[in-house]
Write a structure and sequence with these properties.
The strands form 4 sheets. Strands 7, 8, 9, 10 and 11 form a 5-stranded antiparallel β-sheet that branches. With 432 residues, the chain is α+β, with helices and mostly antiparallel strands. The chain is built from 14 helices and 13 strands. Helix 1 crosses helix 3, helix 8 crosses helix 11 and helix 12 packs across helix 14. The radius of gyration is 33 Å and the shape is extended. Among the domains are: 113 residues, Alpha-Beta Plaits; 96 residues, Chitinase A, domain 3, CATH 3.10.50; 59 residues, no CATH class. Helices cover 46% and strands 21% of the residues.
Length: 432
């Protein structure tokens, strides 16, 4: 076997592999040995038919596909390993057969999507927007009061009309052009006004009704509504309001936080809330500033990104979305059916974001290599010791229980931190 490589369009490399007559014959024999049990010929027991008989009965090319796969699977990984200094494969290759000859053997061409090189116009001396988020007293009060929600009680209201924030019990019946539609009728339905659970305009028109009151309201279904027969249609709902409940919240007192928040006083509890919010604000500021830096640099960058890299990133994004649905007890297939969309259409909406993510990764990798940013051994050891201390272990004991991938993650984290320290020092950051 011998091969040659040549760059091709859109970040691909063509690997042309020539196999000798002997290698091709050997692959044919292996294919016969592996698959002969699938074929039957009158007069022979299944699995015992000689190769020439099978080829004569089914055709000379009977074992070609399997032989191609055998040859390729045995040699392609070694070729990619040998060529890793020249290119990095980022997806499955597409195969074509250039020649089949009993005298010369077989020649295959694999078109391999590879990691593209990136041209970066500039990554130093840029003026880049940074983000700073501060925590106000109002933010702290709002955060502190969240704990009251879990202890709120719904109490009946009889002496006033309903208002936003109330939960009302209603009967409703909807019709379009005088005809009722499926799903448009219910009795004793509990609706929190202001929740946005119903189509725009519905809840707003219920606000102000009193117990026992009946009225018709008119709404318009959105143009993108999931039911095709209702998109953009005007609908009339006959409403009867049967009950009103409002939330009554406990008071935030020292006694309440002692019993429910593990703090000795409201002051101590609010201090904890502020510290938590400040950590979140610092993380948000850091993430958005770093995203701003990468976005500014990517605006100057060019790369021919192979489709395989974008599809792989879309795979990750779809998987993440699927996991989030699972936490809500929903399967992705059910969600797509509810939204009236196909998997192909669903994936297409991620293409832009996936392309941006891939470009960001390529740009970061290029700068790291250009500036020779590395995680030094002593930096990795210091990080391991820090993590070990956080769980009450010695560094040596901690290393024994470490997953090999954890060290790679630590090294990557150090490199990324050093990279952004470098970029912040070499660009002008400003806030509005």
């Amino acid at each position: 076997m011998n091969y040659k490589t040549a760059p091709a369009e859109k970040s691909t490399v063509k690997v042309t592999i020539a196999y000798s007559k002997e290698e091709w014959e050997d692959a044919i024999n292996k294919a016969y040995a592996r698959t002969k049990g699938k074929y039957s010929v009158p007069g022979f027991r299944k699995g015992k038919v000689p190769k020439p008989v099978l080829e004569n009965f089914y055709g000379k090319g009977l074992f070609f596909d399997d032989a191609f796969n055998i040859l390729f699977s045995e040699t392609y990984p070694d070729i990619i390993e040998k060529e890793k200094a020249n290119f990095t494969a980022v997806g499955d290759p597409s195969l074509s057969v250039d020649e089949i000859s009993e005298d010369k053997g077989v020649t295959l061409t694999a078109t391999v999507p590879v990691k593209p090189d990136v041209e970066i116009g500039a990554y130093k001396g840029l003026k880049i927007k940074s983000f700073v988020y501060n925590v106000t007293d109002e933010d702290v009060d709002k955060e502190a009061n969240k704990i009251l929600l879990s202890k709120a009680e719904n109490v009946d209201v009889t002496d006033r009309p309903c208002k936003s924030g109330d939960t009302v019990k209603i009967d409703f019946s909807g019709s379009v052009d005088g005809v009722k539609f499926p799903g448009g009728t219910a009795e004793d339905y509990d609706l929190e006004l202001g929740s946005g659970a119903f189509i725009p305009g519905f809840e707003e028109q219920v606000v102000g009704m009193s117990i026992g009151e009946e009225k018709d309201i008119t709404v318009k279904f959105p143009e993108d509504y999931q039911a095709d027969n209702l998109k953009g249609k005007d609908a009339v709902f006959a409403i009867k309001l049967k009950g009103i409940k409002e939330k009554k919240y406990p008071e935030l007192t020292d006694e309440f936080v002692k019993a429910n928040a593990g703090s000795e006083s409201v002051e101590e509890y609010k201090k904890k809330c502020r510290e938590r919010l400040e950590r979140q604000a610092a993380t948000r500021s850091l993430n958005e500033t770093e995203n701003s830096i990468v976005k500014a640099i990517c605006a100057t960058a060019k790369a021919e990104i192979p489709d395989a890299m974008i599809e792989q990133e879309i795979d990750k994004m779809v998987q993440d979305f699927s996991y989030r649905l699972m936490y809500q007890g929903i399967k992705l297939e059910e969600y797509l059916k509810y939204m009236g969309t196909s998997m192909e259409q669903f994936r297409a909406q991620f293409k832009g974001s996936a392309t941006e993510r891939v470009m960001s990764t390529l740009v970061i990798d290029k700068i790291v290599r250009t500036e020779n940013i590395k995680a030094e051994a002593e930096e990795v050891e210091a990080k391991i010791e820090e993590q070990a201390k956080s769980v009450g272990k010695t560094a040596e004991d901690y290393k024994k229980s470490m997953d090999p991938r954890q060290r790679e993650y630590i090294e990557s984290d150090i490199v990324v931190t050093k990279l952004f320290d470098f970029l912040k020092a070499n660009n002008e950051l400003y806030t509005e």
